[in-house]
Amino acid sequence: MDASTQSTELTGSFTAAAWDRIAPIMAEIEALPLLQRLSDGTLPPEVFRHYILQDALYLKHYARCLAIVAAKAPDNAQVLRFLGSAQKAITVEQGLHAGFLTQFGITSADVTSAEPSPAGFAYTNFLLATAYHNSYAVALSSILPCFWIYWHVGEAIKNRPVIEGNAFQAWINTYGDPQFAAGAREVIALTDIAARAASPVERAQMTDVFVRASQYEWMFWDSAWRLETWPV
Q: What is the DSSP letter of 161?
């Protein structure tokens, strides 16, 4: 089951409506040059280096967002679920990064000295502020786009013909993996459970942060393509 099919099967749910709401954003994400050229193996190495460094910085903060969501979760099962996700953000996905850092000649000193791009800085601060200042349901809705959009993108690229010698195949394999899909589906289901218990005002906030995080996903990839740095 791919991410688009999942949204169809959720018809009538909060997440289905939220996914429909970001359809224009998803169209722009799918057309991003970075993703198109990562898929066919023609992405310039300097762009991928920039992206991986920024993603390493992003994951450090995203793991903290997941830990905050875990602390606000209503039961032990969900606490453990998001603590596990926080651990994976630090270990499993950074293990993927470690391979790419070596492959593309990025040293540990490069990682230590890297500064977040304007888009990355804005995105992680939005997530941290949302997770810290809002309810579990709203915080959960803000972290969902990262799971769901990466699943959608990974599935789409995985289903294209494999390009022999694609230097970015490990990235494609990671986000097209069935285990990643299962994790995304679980967060979608938990978000729908939280939405059913939420007030109308809270549900509106959930939609707002879901849309905003999706916009930041586009901005993050686009900024990497442009090798974005601070202008002054």
A: P
